[in-house]
């Protein structure tokens, strides 16, 4: 279509109003020319006319119910505008068109979580995992759902599955360490927190505090002392607990500060 091609060229030249006129002419002649609606939507986005962009992408979908690009564009815009019911409808159709694309299940699960629908979110995350693709993000998302449902065993299981995929993930190691620390499992807490510190020399303050406490409870004063020193120097930790623990380790190891 000559007019459609002219509209594309004018879009490239940033002659947006002229391009819109061309695309509007095209769809007036052929209401099922879905690519023209899509091009109009992209121009409206550039002009920051969200309402018109949503309508143009929707018109493209009406003209061609299998037009993946239009669903994706409409989805992204709907999510940014917090139009979740429309976004869910887009994802339903994207899953219809691409049933093995795990990102659509993950996106829908995220929306369901936002809407406080954990059962629906869990179903989609289970489906994403059942597709057989090892994905840290999916396991972590499901772990968070289990955490809110207070299903600790399932929560820990998914965290550990995520860790097997990315064994050097500081955040997962730190999260596991913190969980075991708050549940008085000193041995496992110490193991995960030490691994976290080994991976990230800039481990956060809480990680170091919990690690030092674990080591002291195991009477590993010499091992705990460097972490306490890092807390008082690098992190400027002035808490009484940290300084008392540091003094204890120094006395027990004979390494007294001046």
Observed structural traits:
single chain; 258 residues; mainly alpha; 15 helices; 0% strand
Helix and strand arrangement:
Elements: H1 2-12, H2 16-29, H3 34-46, H4 50-63, H5 68-80, H6 84-97, H7 102-114, H8 118-130, H9 136-148, H10 152-165, H11 170-182, H12 186-199, H13 205-217, H14 221-233, H15 240-253
Helix pairs in contact: 1-2, 2-3, 3-4, 4-5, 5-6, 6-7, 7-8, 8-9, 9-10, 11-12, 11-13, 12-13, 13-14, 14-15
Summarize this, please?
By secondary structure, the chain is mainly α. Helices cover 77% and strands 0% of the residues.
Poorly predicted ranges (pLDDT <50, ≥5 residues)? none
Distance between the termini: 85 Å
Give a quick account of the main beta sheet: strands, pairing sense, barrel closure: none
Output the structural class: mainly alpha
Percent of residues in helices: over 70%
- Radius of gyration over all CA atoms, rounded: 27 Å
Number of strands: 0
Number of helices: 15
Beta-strand portion reads: under 5%
Order of helices and strands: HHHHHHHHHHHHHHH
Mean pLDDT, all residues: 95
Question: Shape, please?
Answer: elongated
Report on the architecture of this protein.
With 258 residues, the chain is mostly helical. It is 77% helix and 0% strand. It has 15 helices and no strands. The protein has helices at 2-12, 16-29, 34-46, 50-63, 68-80, 84-97, 102-114, 118-130, 136-148, 152-165, 170-182, 186-199, 205-217, 221-233, 240-253. The longest helix has 14 residues, at 16-29. The protein is elongated and about 90 Å long. The protein starts with a helix and ends in a 5-residue tail after the last helix. The mean pLDDT is 95.
